[in-house]
Write a structure and sequence with these properties.
This protein is of the alpha+beta class and 74 residues long. The chain has one helix and five strands. It has one helix at 44-72, and strands at residues 2-5, 11-14, 19-24, 28-32, 37-40. The strands form two sheets. Strands 3-4-5 form a three-stranded antiparallel sheet, with no helix packed on it. The relative contact order is 0.17.
Length: 74
């Protein structure tokens, strides 16, 4: 999950796997696969960085788990 901020400063978490697209015109809008739209304070570049970091952490954790299982002989 990534944490984003609405224009009224309330924060919420979004599953980045369910983001269809991000628009910036001029406010940044997240469009979800179900059509829901969220206008947020983060820039498009900040969102892309958050999504990239989230996905990298998922891959790193999967790699650690695979290495641990391999070390255990599973």
């Amino acid at each position: 999950m990534i944490v984003v901020t609405r224009l009224n400063l309330s924060r919420f978490a979004v599953n980045p796997d369910l983001i269809e697209r991000v628009q910036a015109s001029p406010d940044t809008t997240i469009v979800m696969v179900d059509g829901a739209r969220f206008v947020v304070r983060e820039t498009m570049d900040e969102l892309i960085a958050q999504i990239t970091a989230f996905r990298a952490s998922v891959l790193a954790q999967a790699s650690r788990l695979a290495s641990a299982r391999q070390a255990e002989g599973l």
